[in-house]
Write a structure and sequence with these properties.
The protein contains eight helices and no strands. The chain is mainly alpha-helical and 185 residues long. The protein folds into two domains: 1-108, RNA polymerase sigma factor, region 2, helix turn helix motif (Rna Polymerase Sigma Factor, Chain: A, Orthogonal Bundle), CATH 1.10.1740.10; 111-185, Winged helix-like DNA-binding domain superfamily/Winged helix DNA-binding domain (Arc Repressor Mutant, subunit A). The longest helix has 30 residues, at 74-103.
């Protein structure tokens, strides 16, 4: 079966990156920065955190690109790095938060947003923000990043059957979150 043009160009890009071609690294960033940022933004609390995680991701990518033995696995490899970087970010966040809570007895007051007029995309994004991180992650990879079930299984390091199960429950959680928002006065 002949390979498509995109796969061949991707393989050449990876090979150029592995050789240390600066233009190829810049091209890799241009091609992937938007998609990776969008994925990260669904997993972290603020845009500032997302940019920080993305920067750390690119550092890991540049240091590890020579270890990528199969260029056609680039998307899965990138999302695995993003996921690991995001997990490291959350560990640091929780460690810092625990230190703050131990040193002071402050409580956060978070008022829910009162804007109830949304279009469909805004409702989906609001719904995503109200479901668990695990559900948000699987829905983002499947629907918004357009990865296959097998690719998601590789990124998350779980069996394909577990991906299907989590996807089912994540869809249900999102539907419930959106419906509960629509039902509010």
């Amino acid at each position: 079966m002949p390979r498509d043009k995109h796969a061949i160009l991707q393989e050449l890009l990876v090979l150029r990156c592995k050789r240390g071609d600066r233009d190829a690294l810049d091209e890799l960033v241009r091609q992937w920065e938007g998609r990776l940022f969008y994925y990260i933004r669904r997993l972290v609390a603020t845009e500032e955190d997302a940019w920080d995680v993305l920067q750390q991701t690119w550092i890991r990518v540049f240091k590890g690109i020579k270890s990528l033995n199969t260029p056609d696995c680039l998307p899965v490899w990138l999302y695995q790095i993003v996921r690991c970087t995001t997990i490291s970010h959350w560990r640091g966040h929780y460690r810092q938060r625990a230190q703050l809570e131990a040193s002071s007895d402050l409580t956060e007051l978070a008022a829910p947003e009162e804007n109830k007029s949304f279009d469909d995309a805004e409702q989906v994004h609001l719904g995503l923000s109200r479901i668990s991180l695990a559900h948000r992650e699987i829905l983002t990879l499947y629907f918004l990043e357009d990865l296959s079930l097998e690719q998601i299984a590789e990124v998350l390091a779980i069996p394909s059957g577990t991906v299907k199960s989590r996807l089912f429950y994540a869809k249900r959680a999102l539907r419930t979150a959106i419906e509960s928002e629509e039902g509010c006065p």
